[in-house]
Amino acid sequence: MSIQRRKINGRETNPIGLGCMSLSWAYAGRPSEEDGIRLLQHAVDIGYDHFDTARLYGLGHNETQVGTALKGRRDKVFLASKMGIFASGEKRGVDCHPDTIRSELEVSLKLLQTDHIDLYYMHRRDKNVPIEDSVGAMADLVKEGKIGGIGLSEMSADTLRRAAAVHPIAAMQTEYSPWTRQAEIAVLEACRELGTTFVAFSPVARGVLANGLRDPQGLPDGDIRKAMPRFTGENWQKNLALVDAFNAIATREGVTPAQLSLAWVLSRGEHVVAIPGTGKIAHLEENIARWDWQIPAAVADEVDALINQQTVSGHRYAGAILPTIDTEDFA
């Protein structure tokens, strides 16, 4: 058997979508403007039909680039974007006030050169605004046809249930891979119960499970991984040993490490999709090449036992970021 296409908000998509962030934000080695647009267009050509962007990524740059790349091809892609995190000017932090949601959407529609966004996320929970108020404002945008569905990002199962009591939640996006398991505490199951698609970001562990990083300290300044506990000192040396064992499993199974990690993520439920990101055409092609490969159960169990919350050294985020995350965490 092979993995089948999956649904987000009732629309069938390839379970491997494209996270567009790395074209504009957070990681080193970003492609040129022209190469970024070329990559996005090539993605559509080879079967990607779910693009994920956000206002935060490049402070509007990513939405602008995606809009340019999809000109004349908008109908071929299930398009998701996010609002709520502000990282420039006087306004910094999270703002999901109803008025902000509406005004931010109008900017995104303009940058994306479209009259609707298929899936619109609150990028983080605004602890100063009841989730019911934010979802109510987004529900109005659904009624107006400006967005197709409501998404939440990095929020807890309790927040999801409160939100879903106001309006169906199409998707919950949270970091998830063999080495980041917080979603397994409660969110994965809550999504299954509520009919909410779980969208896994960083499904190849920020490049680690794609055999893409051997020396994090060699990364340029500005790459967010340099400040993450898992990528430093003794933590990294311990984690690298796990990576080598993981790579050996992939070689034995005849897939790349990235393909193994993606297949493991998709094996966690039929309501799960993944959005690996990349700035390189070769990785773009690699990530989708075996999209329908179903990992054998014994191999999934082997990966599960090798890389998990108990065996990975270091937290996924440094302390300053943790208060902004609503997702459940391990003690």
TrEMBL record:
Q: Where is the NADP-dependent oxidoreductase domain?
A: 15-307
**Any Gene Ontology CC annotation:** cytoplasm
Q: Does the keyword Oxidoreductase apply?
A: yes
Q: Name one GO molecular function term.
A: oxidoreductase activity
The record's annotation in Pfam families points to:
Aldo_ket_red
Keyword entries, A-Z = Oxidoreductase
- Has the keyword ATP-binding been applied to this entry? no
The name of this protein is NADP-dependent oxidoreductase domain-containing protein
Organism of origin is Novosphingobium taihuense
